[in-house]
């Protein structure tokens, strides 16, 4: 059955009030709520509720919650494609090699060569098939950092398909908390971790940034990887510092070449030091330590 996203746009303060109220109202039904920043300068955020089944009734309930908060924005809806449909469209993707990793779909299982660590990514609703320069950069950087530093507790923030969490678990056999703001990505991440036989190492959870009580229970991490975008990464710098073990490493990507210096400045301000930068297809992946 397809899923429907009910959503509206508002400013940051109202978006967070709505997030809390909707989360409470729909917690028992299991409908996830998410906030996404659309435009920081114009203070526009999008609040979404992901539902299956009786959309009209749920939309009416959501309207009631919004009315209770004095929010009169129009409630939009989007029917999300079924996973199988998207998976089909991915069948033409070629396997990608990054460092020792080979990221491939089910149809290319036999293409793995001796010594390669194969990661099978089937679903296409979440970002992360290895074809993007940021994912490939993170995979290469991860291999080097994990082999040198032997981390014991890792976080993959903005996990998408869980490709990076799976790579860490396959290399190091350690617990990896894999979080994403998008509940569909979180679901796909858990499925992919199981498919790659690392379900017992990878815990996939829905969380925007570090806003979830589970970070308190799982921190500190000695390795954090986050392939998001430059601006949210800069905003997250203080929380990255708070959640990292002293001497730990972070790997950041989703940063354009020209944004590198600004991101480094934000992290230098939190006493991180630059170790290495990888350049791929106009994107950079940065390794920092603190
Ligand atoms: C570029 S994709 C990276 C996916 C995968 N880690 C990879 O490297 O291919 C970014 C992911 O981060 C998620 N994301 C964006 N902002 C986030 C935030 N503030 N907190 C958690 N996840 C976020 C998006 O939903 C998306 O799945």
Key attributes of the depicted protein:
290 residues; Alpha-Beta Plaits; Rossmann fold; seven-stranded mixed beta sheet; four-stranded antiparallel beta sheet; 10 helices; 30% strand; globular; binds S-adenosylmethionine; SAM-dependent_MTases_sf; EC 2.1.1.-; transferase; methyltransferase
Concise account of the structure shown:
The chain has 290 residues and is α/β, with parallel strands linked by helices. Helices cover 36% and strands 30% of the residues. It has two domains: 3-80, Alpha-Beta Plaits; 130-289, Rossmann fold (3-Layer(aba) Sandwich).
Please, could you describe this protein's structure?
By secondary structure, the chain is of the alpha/beta class. The chain folds into two domains: 3-80, 2-Layer Sandwich (Alpha-Beta Plaits); 130-289, 3-Layer(aba) Sandwich (Rossmann fold), CATH 3.40.50.150. The chain contains ten helices and 14 strands. The strands form three sheets. The protein has a seven-stranded mixed beta sheet with strand order 10-9-8-11-12-14-13, sandwiched between helices. A four-stranded antiparallel beta sheet has the order 2-3-1-4, covered by helices on one side. It is globular and about 55 Å long. 39% of the residues are buried. The structure holds S-adenosylmethionine (SAM). S-adenosylmethionine is lined by residues 126-128, 134-135, 138, 157-160, 163-164, 179-182, 185, 208-209, 227-228, 232, 254.
């Amino acid at each position: 059955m397809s899923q429907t996203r009910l959503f509206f746009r508002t400013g940051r303060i109202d978006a967070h009030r709505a997030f809390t109220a909707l989360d409470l109202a729909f917690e028992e039904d299991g409908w996830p709520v998410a906030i996404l920043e659309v435009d920081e300068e114009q203070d526009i955020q999008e609040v979404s509720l992901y539902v299956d089944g009786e959309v009209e009734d749920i939309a009416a309930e959501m309207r009631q919650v919004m009315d209770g908060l004095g929010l009169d924005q129009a409630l939009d809806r989007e029917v999300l494609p079924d996973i199988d449909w998207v998976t089909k469209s991915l069948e033409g993707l070629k396997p990608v090699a990054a460092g020792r990793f080979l990221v491939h779909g089910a149809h290319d299982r036999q293409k793995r060569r001796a010594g390669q660590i194969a990661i099978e990514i089937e679903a296409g609703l979440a970002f992360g098939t290895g074809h993007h320069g940021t994912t490939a950069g993170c995979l290469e950087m991860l291999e080097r950092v994990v082999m040198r530093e032997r981390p014991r507790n890792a976080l993959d923030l903005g996990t998408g398909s869980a490709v990076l969490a799976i790579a860490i678990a396959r290399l190091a056999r350690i617990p990896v908390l894999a979080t994403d703001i998008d509940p569909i990505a979180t679901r796909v991440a858990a499925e992919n971790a199981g498919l790659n036989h690392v379900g017992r190492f990878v815990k996939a959870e829905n969380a925007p940034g570090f806003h979830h009580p589970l970070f308190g229970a799982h921190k500190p991490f000695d390795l954090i990887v986050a392939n998001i975008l430059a601006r949210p990464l800069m905003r997250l710098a203080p929380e990255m510092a708070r959640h990292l073990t002293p001497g730990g490493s972070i790997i950041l990507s989703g940063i354009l070449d020209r944004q590198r210096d600004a991101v480094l400045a934000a992290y230098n301000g939190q006493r991180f030091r630059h170790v290495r930068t990888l350049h791929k297809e106009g994107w950079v992946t940065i390794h920092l330590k603190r």
